[in-house]
Amino acid sequence: MNQTIDSIYRSHSRRVLATLIRLLGDFDRAEEALHDAFSAAAQQWTEETIPANPYAWLVSAGRFRAIDHIRRRTRFNAAQADIADSLYPEGETMEIAESNEIEDDMLRLVFTCCHPLIPAEAQMAMSLREVCGLTTEEIAHAFLIPAPTVAQRIVRAKNRIRSAQIPYEVPDKTELPERLAQVLHVIYLVFNEGYSASSGSAIVRADLSAEAIRLGRLLLQLLPDAEVAGLLAMMLLQDSRRHARADASGDLVLLADQDRSLWDREGIREGLTFSARAMAAESVGAYALQAAIAAEHVRAQTAEDTDWQRIVALYDLLLVANPSPVIELNRAVAVSMCDGPAVALSIVDRLLGEERMGRYHLTHAAKADFLRQLGRSDEARESYVTALSLCQQAPEQAFLRKRLAELEVKTRQ
């Protein structure tokens, strides 16, 4: 039963939270209500009594318990009574039906986190906390910054929402374009955490990837923008390879070694359609270019068929549209396939001069791979050890240990 509830928590908790925030009007109160609801489920549910609609049950239970807490406070006053009554009118049924309004709660939450009155860095941190459910430590790892800094940003963002009375809503269509960039970035980060979890025992978090794709589809209906299509295309094309990214034991499988028969052909077809739509636009943005790069990979029948020259050219355009050291690192991998590991190594060495990239395990892992290919085993071993010390995802840790073991075997030979 505990496993069942854990599974429901993973698949439903963020949407339950989003709805509770709308109903209760307060992030902290909603988070407390979420945990109360799952606590109640653990006490009341049995295999025979699991509700047909767990989401609705949890929302109702969480809201009921939140109001119950308000009414039990020792310094209860008329204002709090009004709040309680407005949240849960007398006689209202505990059951909440699925509706389009509830379906939109996650998108409302994203737009609330991305309100212009909230500083950009706080928008990202709060979105990952509230939309993805990541811990402050996981968010800190994603942004390569200290955990206390993340916690402070989230607290300040919640205080700003409360003090400015920022509405929990999807804005009018006339206001969508000015908020679009931040909302797309949030959905992108949600997908990235799902596609490659920053920590834990699994490579992917399929629930987050699926939620990001769902939000992308919903946003495209609201605003048929080329960059929205580009982001949706990128997510579909990347997600199409999900089942091939790990073997039966859960170990990481590199792109070149993946069984391409496991790729989702329907997802690829849909992704390529959206990618073509995004690239045909008058102005081609960063997400469209990322989708175009993903498209090159899925078009290749084998790893050897990959057009790395075109991928490098697309990365060059992407760096103009969105200068980023992480994109430069990805470009370095493509460069190594065209011009060799020595040229790629010079790029990575320059990137390691940046403090943030020096704390990023994939920078050191890439350097180690290039050094290994160049036969510089001792230096490669040192970089693998550094990458391993910074990595927090179990399958990636196992992969790095495997690389180290292979180096040891080669050295003894």
Please tell me about this protein's structure.
- This protein has 413 residues and is mainly alpha-helical.
- It has 21 helices and no strands.
- The relative contact order is 0.06.
- About 4% of the residues have low confidence.
Q: Helices, strands, pairings?
A:
Elements: H1 2-24, H2 27-44, H3 54-72, H4 78-87, H5 100-103, H6 105-113, H7 120-132, H8 136-143, H9 147-164, H10 176-195, H11 206-222, H12 226-239, H13 265-279, H14 286-299, H15 308-321, H16 325-339, H17 341-351, H18 355-358, H19 361-373, H20 377-390, H21 394-412
Helix pairs in contact: 1-2, 1-3, 1-6, 2-3, 3-4, 6-7, 7-9, 7-10, 8-9, 10-11, 10-12, 11-12, 12-13, 12-14, 13-14, 14-15, 15-16, 16-17, 17-19, 19-20, 20-21
Supply the key terms:
413 residues; mainly alpha; 71% helix
What's the short story on this structure?
It contains 21 helices and no strands. The chain is mainly alpha-helical and 413 residues long.
How many beta strands in the DSSP annotation?
A: 0
Q: What's the shape?
A: globular
The computed structural class is: mainly alpha
Task: Summarize the main sheet.
Answer: none
Alpha carbon gap, first and last residue: 52 Å
Number of separate helices: 21
Percentage of residues in helical conformation:
over 70%
Give average pLDDT, whole number: 87
- Taking pLDDT < 50 over at least 5 consecutive residues as the criterion, the unreliable ranges are 86-102
How much strand?
under 5%
Order of helices and strands: HHHHHHHHHHHHHHHHHHHHH
Query: Radius of gyration, Cα only, in angstroms?
Result: 23 Å
